[in-house]
Amino acid sequence: MAVTDEAIEKIKGMIVSGALAPGDRLPKESELAAELGLSRNSLREAVRALSLIRILDVRQGDGTYVTSLDPQLLLEALSFVVDFHRDDTVLEFFAVRRILEPAATAMAALRIEEEELDALGAQLDALGPEPSVEALVAGDLEFHRRIVRCSGNTVLCSLLDGLSGPTTRARVWRGLTQEDAVSRTLHEHRAILAALRDRDAEAARSWATVHIASVEHWLRSTL
């Protein structure tokens, strides 16, 4: 095992075991290196790597801290990695989204507040019947993000947020090339919202599946 990898594993072990809790400040570099049996250089590299994936927070002049370890913070790295996908793997991202998002939408149907339902309706009204592709895609992202947030599961919300990169580009492409894409998307959004208002989890799940699958089907036929 490379010395930097060993250092990462040892710091990880301290966090997993509870020796370092969220928000804790790490011991001074010289003390921690001696405690873990590491060189200061390998420890420094490990801290740099763990800060990149939001495990540690290096504060100049103050020290290094364990972050909150909140799922949304930790999964930010996912969206960065997802942006490096190849075009031939975008369908795999859609397949994952088709598994997760309908489940999140069904969960939201049982938890969403009336105020949020009204806000979603107002958002759809603001788009109008013939929005630009860019406005539609931005609205689509926000529409689904707000619904998933109402599922009450922060991990699920963060995962789906991280998967939005390639699927966003695919939706833009679809909007520019498929004649009825805008009207179909608006109709499907209204159907999802109606199911949420009815507190019908299975209808919400079904419409979310239809919505994602229609983009996936179109994309599959064009690649």
TrEMBL record:
Domain HTH gntR-type residues, every copy: 1-69
Chain ranges passing through the membrane: none
One Pfam family this sequence matches: GntR
Keyword annotations from UniProtKB, A to Z: DNA-binding, Transcription, Transcription regulation
Keyword DNA-binding: yes
Keyword Phosphoprotein: no
A molecular-function term among this protein's GO annotations: DNA-binding transcription factor activity
Protein name in UniProt: FadR family transcriptional regulator
